[in-house]
Queue: 3 jobs
Job 1
Amino acid sequence: MKIHREKHRLDVTVSDLSGSRFDDVNLSGSIYENVNMSGGTFHDINMSGWRVRNVNLAGLRIEDANLAGASLSGCQMDGMTIDGIEVGDLLKVWARQARSEDATAARPDVK
């Protein structure tokens, strides 16, 4: 089925749209619940303001992205890397440095 230059609101439930292609499409404000998007490719996409909760992003690759203001909380990050560096290792170094700075600040005789 082809939809071209149309403006409709779709309510799609219990359907298989696998292999579909979306190009130059406005899906702003759409809601996705219980959706399988595995193996999908997203290129030149505006996802600003997205909220993602309870998702499986294992194996996700993000390249050339603007992550300004992005926030991760309560996430499993085993094996996650940023520019090839393990995030777990980065957090350990940061925590060690923060503890060291706190200890130095607590000792007035150290300058």
Job 2
Amino acid sequence: MQLAIYHHVTSAVWADALFVSVIQGSDKPDAVQVRKAIAAAVRAYGGRGCAQRVAQEFGDHPETAVARMRWARAVASEVFVSPSGPAQDSVRRRPGQPVADSRASRLVRT
């Protein structure tokens, strides 16, 4: 069994990766396409590389970058949503799914 650490900033990495991916909002991607695009972007550029590309786009094209980042954040949060509330701990998580805990890092067995 492998341990994975999920930080509260992971959602920012997902949004950055979706921002720099080839998917467009007009494509109306489903959850599977979004996850694949995020994984491909992270593999290609790494987390920091995605952030660097986002920063470059905001410098070069701020008028379009704002709308794309809003879209990327909204879609990433929809795709990687997890249950909330007291029942969350009783729900069995699927491997590779994010853990919603914005207070601290958590270890999750995957």
Job 3
Amino acid sequence: MATAPKIAETIPPDLAALQADVIALKNDVASLLDTLQKQAVNGAVGAVDRLEKQAGQLYRTVYAKGEHQAEVLSHKIEDQPIAAVLIAAGIGYLGGRLLAR
């Protein structure tokens, strides 16, 4: 009884070389995609770090300006208490009228 030739024995050498090239290309593309993914993650982490630092700086700046404005307002109220009370009463009156509607 004759045995059938194995598939590897029947593939022409050019096709076998092409198959090896395709496998190598597949491995290269997988490696490239892995590298690109790592670079994208590293870039995103770097961007998050920069944004976090900028947000911290912005928070500190806004907080300091808010503190300064509160101090300025406090001094104005101390300097002109009657005007401050009248302004607060007017704002309260207007707010009450608007909310009553």
